[in-house]
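Weekly modeling sync, notes
Attendees: S.R. (lead), two postdocs, one rotation student

Agenda item 3: backlog of single-chain predictions. S.R. asked that every request posted to the team notebook include the full sequence so nobody has to chase files. The rotation student volunteered to paste the first one in as an example of the format we agreed on. Action items at the bottom.

Example entry:
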Amino acid sequence: EVKLLHANFKRLSITIMGLFLALTTPMGIGIGIGITNVYDENSPTALIVEGIFNAASAEILIYVARIDLLAADFKNPRMKKTGSLLIFF
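Predicted structure, as returned to the notebook:
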């Protein structure tokens, strides 16, 4: 992402972070496929873990919407005038 270039990270750090991102998704898919044989989706433990992960995912989406997306809008001079109205929505 472009933000990494502006954060003054070294090129090696950016490369390592990119490789980590590229490898974790396939590893997660592989782990998910591997545990399907022993996973009981109706067990109390599985339901609690699923609820915790769903709550964490929802919080990440709320954070991105409020901080990353709305913050850029409030920096716009035109939005500063009507910004207080948007808080209620």
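Discussion: group reviewed the output briefly. Residues 44-75 form the longest helix (32 residues).
Action items: rotation student to repeat for the remaining queue; S.R. to check formatting next week.
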